[in-house]
Amino acid sequence: MKAISESHRTTIAAIATPPGMGAVSMIRISGPDAIHIADCATDGKASSQAPRFARHCRVRDASGETLDDGLLTIFTGPHSYTGEDTVEFTGHGGILVTREVLGRFLACGALPATPGEFTRRAFLNGKLDLTQAEGVMDLISAQTQLSLRAARSQLEGTLGRRTTAARDSLLETLAHLEAWIDFPEEDIDPQTGILLRFRVQSVLDTVNTLLATADQGRILREGVRTVIFGEPNVGKSSLLNRLLGFERAIVSPTAGTTRDTIEETINLHGIPLRLVDTAGVREAGDLIEAEGIQRTVRQIEAADLLLEIADASTARPNGSLCPTFSAKHLLVLNKTDLGEHPSWADADAVRLSCNTGAGFEILSETIRDSLHFGQVDWGEHAIAINARHQISLGHARVALLAALEILDDPASDTELAAIDLREALDALGEIPGRVDTEDLLGVIFSSFCIGK
């Protein structure tokens, strides 16, 4: 049961469109006094208006002067985004006029909304589960088609339904187990022990399946940190510019031109790549270049994917610039238009030319395949858990494994398995928000923009 705080019974208002100038802006009011507050600013137009119909009106200040004119729409609770009475005023998109209109609604009794407060109220009123609420922010911040698809899936409740179904199955399993423990004289089905183990294993399989999407979820939300590194003058900055489609980095035949790291994001087959161009790795000629090379090393250590660039037209160097890799590593041979040196003949590498553009399609496909983001790998349903989900699922997995170990050992006290199953039940309930976690809600909704 969700606890409704006193602040939840107040009426809030905020600008729901991005800051800055635009054609239109929208201000949202939500709460028990939303219609009354709108009446105060619109000469009583709100209370006489049919729900879900837009109506032209003027917002006036306390002296009767018009602040703005636009469209007023009423949504009566529970048939609104927040589940409360909600008013939306769409007016002209100037910065000052929008602030003046919001100020008028605040003067009429509304309180300024905090980040994510509208969506938080939607969750508290049962309009969304917690995974759907998080899906709202993912949808807003999606940068690629795949991340958009995953956000839509979460907003539609796919993850919430999967975890709720697993929790409900576990709840039924726990009830059977406790009945088996408390009423041995009732001669419960002798296969109960085997069936209970099967049900627990089934929930564990679901948990493991969802946990397997953690890396994809992180990549879709944060992007793949892709570090381009190599010796000076092998074409690192040229590769960055080619991938971006514009001249972002300075390209020069002078060694050591790139002194600092340059970061940009691209969309590659639906995958956000955070490209990082780095200083050439060699013996530094001065302190500034030495610092640039040290930053390159730090970027390599933090990378998800490494693109090591080498000059195909020159002899293959002895050894690697970075002999140990914790991230995925692709060798890229550039300048193939100048011919390939025989020493590269057996190299497992992507061959391309930043000068002519040859080989870039192969590079993009190789990157996609190395990250396991093909259509087959992604599957039919886009579910990608985030870090919060991963922690809760991890706790559930540990508890389920402990319960299975007890159920498999005839000498163990079966009541201990019930304790582990309750822990797994609580952990699964945290994902859609089926337990009271006020601090957790504060962390989640603090990342939202004001007005959403």
Describe this protein's structure.
This protein has 15 helices and 12 strands. It is of the alpha/beta class and 452 residues long. The protein has a 6-stranded mixed sheet with strand order 3-4-5-2-1-6. A hairpin with a 2-residue loop joins strand 8 (262-268) and strand 9 (271-277).
In short:
By secondary structure, this protein is of the alpha/beta class. The chain has 15 helices and twelve strands. A six-stranded mixed sheet has the order 3-4-5-2-1-6. A six-stranded mixed sheet has the order 8-9-7-10-11-12, with helices on both faces.
Tell me the radius of gyration: 29 Å
Content of β-strand? 15-25%
The residue ranges in which pLDDT falls below 50 over 5 or more consecutive positions are 1-6, 254-259
Give the helix tally. Answer: 15
SS-derived structural category: alpha/beta
SSE series: EEHEEEHEHHHHHHEHEEHEEEHHHHH
Topology:
Blueprint: E1 12-15, E2 22-30, H1 34-41, E3 55-60, E4 66-75, E5 86-93, H2 95-107, E6 111-112, H3 117-124, H4 130-141, H5 145-155, H6 158-182, H7 192-211, H8 214-222, E7 224-230, H9 236-244, E8 262-268, E9 271-277, H10 287-302, E10 305-311, E11 328-334, E12 350-351, H11 360-370, H12 375-378, H13 387-408, H14 414-430, H15 438-445
Parallel strand pairs: 1-6, 7-9, 7-10, 10-11, 11-12
Antiparallel strand pairs: 1-2, 2-5, 3-4, 4-5, 8-9
Descriptors:
452 residues, 17% strand, 12 strands, alpha/beta, six-stranded mixed beta sheet, 43% helix, disordered N terminus, 15 helices
